[in-house]
Amino acid sequence: MANEGPNWEGLLKWSIAHSDGTRPSQNFSEEDQRWFMEAMQAQTVDVGKRMKEIILVMETPEQVLEAHGITSADIEDMLDELQEHVESIDMANNLHSIGGLIPLLGCLKNTHANIRAKAADILTTIVQNNLRSQQLVMEANGLEPLLSNFTSDPDVIVRTKALGAISSLIRDNKPGIAAFRLANGYGVLRDALSSENVRFQRKVLNLIHYLLQENRSDCNVATELGFPSLMMHLACSEDAEVREAALRGLLELARDRPCGRNSLSEDEEQLKQILQDRIEGIGLMLSEDLAAAREERQLVDALWNMCYKEPSSLRENGLLFPEEDAPPPDVAGKLFEPPLRAWDAKRATDTDT
């Protein structure tokens, strides 16, 4: 019977027979109690033990796993399970102490793209709002394989997942940001902007925006690397979220004013034409589309005002209303702040204090 799994049908019949709602509950016999506890324990998972079993699989060479009939789909299922376990900050931090972090980083080099992507996904979960795990991943040289996958993996999903892990790894992590910059991080971000995948473009732009907000001096680096022209190109994208992300980046560069000039000074004529085109496009929108494009309208107006010291024609044409004068929301910042992990991190901090 033990090999066949819990007898749930028998448990249901027993429950109905012993609790029909019309008579007082009866005392369990010792045999009934023993059977019930065995049934419940069969469904209880020892998370620590299970994580070690998954780690053992991650440590085993691919050819050995294949020889034993373990497929890449089986490994993906195990990694899905591992990701559920490390949603807990305690379990995320415990992964390294039980020997799981290095094998997980090794999965970033797996021959199967889905496994490489899933490994990056798990790393994202581990380091989100978790300074301790950020430190552990940095100490294990985890940034290097993530950068490698981000820059050169042939699968765009793997590249996107690696970028997500990098973003979470360096967020609110000054040593991580410094290491990213030293590893030519801005250079690889510039190259990544040439991708045609809009989801990838959005994530790259959001990370650039975050980095420029964190360190104003990086605006000079971004300008020297040609970011303004790349962002202007993406500000004309057919994808609304890409346009907004590009406009946010341009606005950050426009706020940088060394020696009375901003980082967009050399491209002002091109930028002016792009903004005029966007204003015309906004003017042709239906009312429901205007509501959805609120942030884009705010960004266009703010950028025009920043560069040309006057309100845009969106205002005089009635396309931007007084109640919409608040600064554009920090969408990029929110993308780095998963609510459940953020709450868990706050709970852990409160417990420590």
UniProtKB/TrEMBL annotation:
Any one annotated GO CC term: endoplasmic reticulum
Pfam families to which the protein is assigned, alphabetical: Fes1 (PF08609)
GO molecular function: adenyl-nucleotide exchange factor activity
Taxonomic lineage: Eukaryota, Viridiplantae, Streptophyta, Embryophyta, Tracheophyta
Keywords, alphabetical: Repeat
Record keyword Repeat present: yes
Superkingdom field: Eukaryota
Protein name as catalogued: Hsp70 nucleotide exchange factor like
Keyword Magnesium among UniProt keywords: no
Domain TOG: 46-288
